[in-house]
Amino acid sequence: MPTKRLLINFIERIFFLVKVEGESLWPELIPGKRYFATSMLKPNADDYVVFKNPRNQREIFVKKVKRIIDGSYEVGGTVPWSSSSEGFSFVANELVLGKIIFSSLIRL
Question: Which residue blocks in the chain are alpha helix, DSSP H?
Answer without folding.
Answer: 2-14, 85-88
